[in-house]
Amino acid sequence: xxxxxxxxxxxxxxxxxxxxxxxxxxxxxGLLRSVGLAAKIxxxxxxxxGLVDILGDHGATNVQGETVKKMDVFAxxxxxxxxxxxxxxxxxxxxxxxxxxxxxxxxxxxxxxxxPLDGSSNIDVNVxxxxxxSIFKRLHNDHPVSKEDFLQKGSCQVAAGYVIYxxxxxxxxxxxxxxNGFTLDPTIGEFCxxxxxxxxxxxxxxxxxxxxxxxxxxxxxxNYVNACTVLxxxxxxxxxxxxxxxxxxxxxxxxxxxxxxMYPSSTDAPNGxxxxxxxxxxxxxxVEQAGGKATxxxxxxxxxxxxxxHQRTPIYIGSADMVDELMEHFNASI
Length: 334
Known about the structure:
The protein is of the alpha+beta class. It has helices at residues 10-19, 27-47, 70-86, 147-150, 219-228, 247-257, 276-289, 320-332, and strands spanning 57-61, 67-69, 89-94, 101-102, 110-118, 129-137, 159-165, 169-174, 179-185, 190-195, 206-208, 240-241, 260-263, 274-275, 293-295, 312-313, 315-318. β7 and β8 (169-174) form a beta hairpin.
C-alpha cells in the first residue's frame, strides 16, 4: 500500500488551527509544541530504560509522600525546561514539586499544571505510562502570579492533553474544539495526526477499578460493580474488569473502546487519591470534549472549586451512559 501524501504533523495541525483564529498570537500553539518536544525526549529515554540507569527509585519522596522514580525526576526536569525555553508560560505546578514554579516570563499569560510521568511505578515492568497537562490563563496580568491563579475550576481550562508512552507513543489534546490524537513516527521524529476528531463510545463493557479495595469503597460503587458483573446475556453482562494502574493507560483504552474508569473515595482515602488540578481536570476536559462525562460522585469534576495545589478527589470518568448509570446508584444512596 503506498504511503499517504496527506501527512499532517502536530506542528502543521497546530498552524492550521491557529489560522482559524485571526487574533491568535501563537502563544498557546508554542506551549503545545513544547509539550511535543519534551514528550519526544521522555519517550527516547523510556525506550532505552532497560539499557541505562534510569529505572528504579530515586531515593526520595514527592509532596504526595510517594516514592519518586528516577524517570519521574527526568520527565519533570525536561518538561519544566521545555516550558521555560518556550518562554510562553509564567508559572508551573507539577506533581513532583510542593510549590508552584515561577518562570522569568512575568508578562506571559499562561499557566501549566502537569503530572510529568503518571504511572511511573509500572516502568520497571514495561507497562504503559503517561504525561498529563493542563493549560490555564492567569487571572490578572498586572499582578504577580499567585496560587489563586492556579486555583481555577477545570471549566476555565483553555487546553489539556496527555501523552501515552506504550507500544506506540501518542499525544492527545483538546483546545476546546474537539479532541485530536497524534502518533509519534520514530522514523521521522514527528507526531502525526492519526486519530482526528476522537469520539468516545457512548457506552461500553469495560469497568476499570482496583477491585482489591472494593470493600472500602462507597456502597454506590459496590452496587454498581455488582450490577456490572451479574450474568445477564440480554445486556451483554458481565462486563470486563480491567485495571492497569496507570490512569493515562486506563483512560486511553476507555477513550478508544468505551467504558468507565473509577478511582473512588475509600475508608483509607476519604477524599480520593488522584489530584484535581493536573490529573482529573485535564482528563475530564478531554473526555467531555469527546462526548463522555466525569464526576466526583456529586458534581461534574470541572465544576469543582480547587482549594489547594495538590488537592485530591474521587473520580468516575468515561462513557456517558455508564457514568449516568453509576450516578443512579449514587442518587439512590442519598
